[in-house]
Amino acid sequence: MSVSDMFIALQGVLTADQDIREEIRREVQALEQTARELLTLLQGVHQGPGFQHIPKKCQKAREHFGTVRTQLESLKTKFPADQYYRFHEHWRFVLQRLVFLAAFVVYLESETLVTRESVAEILGIEADRERGFHLDIEDYLSGVLTLASELARLAVNSVTAGDYSRPLRISAFINELDSGFRLLNLKNDSLRKRYDGLKYDVKKIEEVVYDLSIRGLNKEATVGGGGEK
């Protein structure tokens, strides 16, 4: 084979790879649009009237995840199953955002932390990497850390909306989450940096709870019960 033939063959490989990446990018753009729609929907809970409509917003979000499952199913077909990590960078960010959105919905519904297996089920992908397109552990953890920041914001807005019991429940949840992350030996620099931000979320929520205590509203929350979910 001549040098010219060798480079023509190499160009064929490069072109095929570029075609795959372009198809993946198109699928990811559709996923990003659905994720934006989900985020816009769920951001409504931070507004005063939004607290009254949390169940409806969660139900609507579940419907959006049906679209997500369809889009991820299409994405799976755009590259060889054994090359997940070769192209992972293309969908890593949007998948982390979808994990956060799924975790937020589950928290709003039950005030519990969604498992990685449950998120994978919501998204219609695998939890086990041996089975193909799956939810990477670090992507799951990144999404959970984004949830912590969202709940810190929700704690502040809960007080504004007159829901004084919710910040207390959020505080207990975030402290438990922080304890869980302390059990991990995080090697990923990006994930470690995001985890370092968790202490600020904990502090922010503690300040909200302290303010309620100073104003005597924490007693009112305890006497008044769990409030609306």
TrEMBL record:
SUPFAM superfamilies: Translin (SSF74784). Mg(2+) binds at E150. Pfam families: Translin. It comes from the Eukaryota. One of its GO terms (molecular function) is endonuclease activity. Residues 14-41 form a coiled coil. Gene3D superfamilies: Translin, domain 1, Translin, domain 2. It is found in: Cytoplasm; Nucleus. One of its GO terms (cellular component) is nucleus. GO terms for biological process: RNA metabolic process. Keywords: Coiled coil, Cytoplasm, DNA-binding, Endonuclease, Hydrolase, Magnesium, Metal-binding, Nuclease, Nucleus, RNA-binding. Belongs to the translin family. Ring-shaped heterooctamer of six TSN and two TSNAX subunits, DNA/RNA binding occurs inside the ring. Exhibits both single-stranded and double-stranded endoribonuclease activity. May act as an activator of RNA-induced silencing complex (RISC) by facilitating endonucleolytic cleavage of the siRNA passenger strand. DNA-binding protein that specifically recognizes consensus sequences at the breakpoint junctions in chromosomal translocations, mostly involving immunoglobulin (Ig)/T-cell receptor gene segments. Seems to recognize single-stranded DNA ends generated by staggered breaks occurring at recombination hot spots. This is Translin. It comes from Pterocles burchelli. The gene is Tsn.
